[in-house]
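Backbone-to-sequence.
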């Protein structure tokens, strides 16, 4: 059972707080640990006892000579060899280090699914100013009443030593992903037999929360702005979504608008949230599954289970490579496992259970958060019969031109239909995330949405 394998951290989890409680900031003694026995963002700096997880030594801080933002990132670990492969025949040897979702994948797709496990590389790194801001806001950050927002924080990770599940999910929502970026990506809703129609999307983002001179007052309650335009297929071309995500969701929910090319109108889109279908996802992803989880946490009770050592997707530079074609990645039932990389990492485990009186297609979700970055790496999603329904993976790399650790590909497997959705494919595109885009708030106004729709 999961509970038996939880690693307890002295001082990190004092007790499980009620979801509606307001948490207090860290003490000076606790903050002094950041950058010492803990990493600047709160992970354990040391490796594990048996040496299978190394110590964190700063991650990848610099891009190689000649690299420009937007290019496909070369693999700094290309010479690593597979340590071993987990498959249906030997999964019982590794069951304590597998998520319930991966166990289900082996059980259902055992003839073809496997996990190639590589040496663990703690590559996560972030700018020094993010570390400094984390030390600063750790003393002042609090959950707002009900836990549906954060106060006393800007720029940094608000809760580097989380005491409850709500603090962990807010760390993910507020983690650093650069200041602005754009990308052209593919989204493939794959049938059971492996067929798909590629949906091409142009994404842009701007993160007021992460700006060097950001203040809580100047945010006007907006932490990130996101714009997504459908470029293909022809029947969907021209649809544009604009979202302004808020810091205090209790004060104001996210603001969203859509441009409909048929009507040539911009309209408010309050349904772009929770379990409404994601853009052009063929019903294989909910709105709040983008970025592994986004939006208000209000519909769930968030229980911090603890820490665990798990095999997770990590350093997925091969999957990110422009040497691969989409046909090399997309296969029936699941991604081609020969192009995937799994490593043993410590993760925070959080169980989110639907509150009484609220609705969502997922009754329960188990999240696995990378301790080094607060990025969600895997999610198990259960239906209203308590059956495991969907399994999500976030295949991450260090975008060392920033630096930040973020997904290069999200995949959402539907175990009941045998279908899956692969989101943010970029292997055949000219550029991946371009963090030198130089976008500003004016690029994310409703006026910009109207202008984009007329082009």
């Amino acid at each position: 059972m999961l509970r038996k394998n939880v690693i307890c951290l002295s001082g990190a989890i004092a007790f499980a707080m009620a979801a509606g409680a307001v948490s207090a900031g860290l003490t000076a003694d606790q903050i002094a640990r950041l950058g010492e026995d803990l990493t600047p963002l709160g992970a354990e700096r040391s490796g594990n006892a048996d040496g299978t997880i190394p110590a964190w030594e700063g991650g990848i801080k610099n891009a190689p000579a000649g690299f420009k933002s937007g290019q496909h990132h070369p693999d700094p670990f290309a010479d690593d060899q597979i340590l071993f492969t987990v498959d249906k025949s030997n999964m019982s040897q590794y069951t304590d280090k597998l998520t319930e979702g991966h166990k289900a994948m082996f059980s259902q797709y055992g003839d073809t699914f496997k996990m190639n496990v590589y040496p663990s590389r703690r590559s996560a790194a972030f700018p020094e100013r993010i570390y400094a801001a984390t030390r600063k806001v750790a003393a002042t950050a609090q959950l707002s009443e009900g836990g549906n927002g954060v106060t006393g924080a800007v720029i940094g990770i608000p809760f580097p030593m989380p005491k409850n599940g709500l603090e962990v999910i807010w760390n993910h929502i507020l983690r650093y992903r650069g200041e602005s970026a754009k990308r052209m990506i593919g989204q493939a809703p794959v049938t059971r037999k492996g067929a798909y129609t590629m949906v091409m999307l142009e994404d842009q983002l701007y993160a007021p929360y992460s700006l060097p001179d950001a203040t809580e007052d100047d945010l006007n309650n907006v932490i990130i702005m996101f714009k997504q335009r459908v470029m293909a297929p022809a029947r969907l071309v021209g649809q544009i979504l604009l979202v302004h995500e808020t810091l205090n969701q209790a004060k104001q929910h996210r603001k969203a608008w859509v441009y409909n090319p048929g009507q040539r109108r911009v309209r408010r889109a309050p349904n772009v949230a929770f379990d409404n279908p994601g853009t052009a996802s063929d019903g294989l992803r909910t709105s709040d599954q983008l970025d592994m989880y986004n939006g208000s946490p209000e519909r769930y009770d968030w229980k911090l289970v603890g820490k665990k050592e798990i095999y997770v997707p990590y350093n997925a530079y091969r999957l990110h490579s422009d040497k691969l074609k989409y046909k090399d990645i997309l296969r029936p039932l699941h991604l081609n496992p020969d192009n995937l990389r799994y490593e043993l990492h410590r993760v925070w485990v959080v169980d989110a259970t639907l509150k009484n009186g609220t609705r969502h297609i997922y009754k329960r979700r188990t999240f696995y958060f990378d301790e080094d970055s607060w990025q969600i790496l895997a999610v198990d999603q259960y239906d209203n019969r308590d059956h495991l329904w969907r399994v999500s993976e976030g295949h991450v790399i260090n975008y060392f031109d920033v630096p930040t650790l973020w997904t290069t590909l999200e995949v959402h497997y539907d175990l009941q239909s045998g279908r899956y959705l692969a989101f943010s494919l970029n292997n055949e595109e000219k550029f991946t995330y371009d963090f030198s885009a130089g976008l500003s708030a004016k690029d994310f106004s409703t006026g910009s949405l109207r202008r984009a729709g007329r082009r």
